[in-house]
Amino acid sequence: MGYRVVDTETVEPVSDRPCELRRVGSEAGLETVALNRFRAVPGEQVPLTYHYHTEQEEAFYVLSGTLFVETLDGTFEVPTDGLFVADPESPHRAYNPEDASEPVELLALGSPAVSGDAERYEPDEE
């Protein structure tokens, strides 16, 4: 058996991202689920450019603020305690707009925890 409590504030943020990213899943020893904590101030993207995952299902649970997610079906506004889900092969771009009045904080969950399956999506190429 294995149990642990992880204080996400003690996990070092990942550098070179457009917003604060803490990879709490790897810190907790998770191997089959990716779990990341994000904080984006107004004008920041969460976490990548417009992209899709080839294998991974991805879910964003909003802890505070409002998350905006651009998709091929339009832009979704996800409020506090809301959940946004993207299936594999479904392009999306999550962000906190420039005119937002507060940061947005969220947990992102992905399964399976595969690295390198995020592909850049170029809307103009369709």
TrEMBL record:
Record-given protein name: Polyketide synthase curC
SUPFAM superfamilies reported for this sequence: RmlC-like cupins (SSF51182)
Pfam families in UniProt: Cupin_2
Domain Cupin type-2, residue spans: 40-108
